[in-house]
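Quick one: structure tokens for this chain, please?
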Amino acid sequence: MDSPTGAPRDYVAEVANARHAARMLRRGAFATAAVGGIACIVAIISFVRGEVGLDATVEYFWAFGAVTVISGVAFYATSWNLALSASRLEVQIELGAPRTGEAQD
């Protein structure tokens, strides 16, 4: 992908790959958040049924459930960051602007 000429077609492929990766990250984010949400619900149901004590419920809730939900949110934010970066690169390609960090004449 890194051609010595820095041809725009190479970057068009990178934009497409970045958009695909962003979609995959979003899917992973939703799956991760869903698992965390289910874990939180299971912890609460176990407490309500009297199967575990309050301290174990709080520990399970924070140690697995909430942390997993937060990880899902981080995945989701990362996917949008990647998509926005791909959009910026796409605009630079369309305008024919030099890449960031390149010297301008």
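Helices lie at 8-48, 54-95.
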